[in-house]
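Model: You mentioned two targets. I'll fold them one after the other.
Researcher: Yes, keep them separate.
Model: Target one:
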Amino acid sequence: MSANCFGHVTAKIACKVIGARQFYVASISHLSSSFNSTYEQFLTSIIAVTIACAGRVVTVKGPLGTLQRSFKHMSLDMQQVTDPATKKLNLKVDLWFGNRETTASVRTVCSHIQNMITGVTEGFKYKMRFCYAHFPINASMVKNGDNEVVEIRNFLGEKKVRRIELLDGVKYLKTADVKDQIEIFGIDITKVSLSCARISQSTMVRNKDIRKFLDGIYVSEKGTNKA
């Protein structure tokens, strides 16, 4: 594709997006142009959530707690701007002189921040099920200071006790009305998912045919606390 043709196609897309920019006041809006080499996205904060940005360190405060995440490793411009139409404070993410790969990181950053907003308003919950053919898996929770530790016993009939310490802010709950199911929940999706991964990896079958030995603890459902 020639350079003139590429510029023409990009200009048409940019005109369409800019023309509909006022329509996306309450959601994420996009602006892409090859002439000024910028890519922008806006995140609009919702009620009861406060977003602060200083030096590419984003802090989100909500009813369930506070989350902070650093994006200093990414070459982005992040600033808070006021929408003249709604008078709301939005978070603006800019990328200058980006290519196809680097512009994709802008949407990734916005997705991370959106997960932080969801975490402080609703929270995340992962459900895990026990899978076994003969030896029933037993799981319990003990306290180790402020953190909770999941103890797994009788996996494949072994006497070994597997201890997995949950990350800060992550809680454990054994489902009362569903057999062989536990729930891992918290406000930080990264810590919740990583804690589930540690539990699942601790029950990986070693030195056996995994097509035959399917025992383990697996994630069966992902969602929010309000779902």
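Model: Target two:
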Amino acid sequence: MNKVTKTIHITANNHGQRLDKFLADFDLEKSRAAWQKLIKSGKVLVNDNATEANYSIKTADKIEILKEDLPVERAMSVPDIKIIYEDENVIVIDKPIDVVAQRTETSDAPAVTDFLENHFPAIKKVGEDEQRSGIVHRLDKDTSGIMIAAKNQEAFEFLKDRFKKREVQKLYTALVYGKVEPEKGEIDFAIGRNPKSPCKQTIVRNPDTSTVKCRVARTLYRTIKSSEDYSLLEVELKTGRMHQIRVHMKAIGHPVVGDPKYATPKLLQSTPGLKRQFLHASELKITLPDGKKGIFHSELPNDLRSFLKKHSDLD
């Protein structure tokens, strides 16, 4: 029997919406296309029955989301990942680029979960589902830097609670196009899925009147160095929304250098030597399950350092 992972009861506010659109707005981590695939495979039930993606939901409908099938076993390419810190409860790693956080059905890219399961097989049972393998937060495939994972369920719940309560300090190093002024500031636009391009996020300036489902987002930044063409920033995430730094920097007119999703083609053409976005998770401060204060650092990887060296005013 398929396990129900989530049950949603529809209220009058959502009456008449398409099922796939409602679910995409409900869970911002899955695209509308991903929900359509799950609905088609029978993993979404409405009033105990499978249905179509274009079904118009009604007040009092019961939507049940069933446990997804595990991805088909594939030849696992275990990425080479540096361990920064490890104890009986947690493991802190320095994620390289070209590595996704978790395995997916649509990508053959190596995953952090592959490394974690190979290093500590018992971690496969840690988390909210069998695909999480202890992961409590994510980095984009082409964002490098610090990640922390739990090695047991108690530690997972503890870390998850720290992130939920925003008791974690996450610092990133980012290079953006143009000279950022003021040199220090806060960006607090809400963020939601871009209705015109579901694989992207967008800012929402008026959440109370917008039809785009969004969440509060806060980003702090300060300039480390700058020139007329670039600004090297230290960025602190006060919330953890998908693509938050990338979307917020674009919103103030300074996209992250090399960002294929949010920088314009013209800007990307001006930096051909960089093959990914210049964004690195450089520091993490968090209370660990044993009560100790963890402060972890990661140096800029070689590709980002090499790019800076080509610009002597930033190196």
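Researcher: Noted. Anything on target two?
Model: The chain has seven helices and 16 strands.
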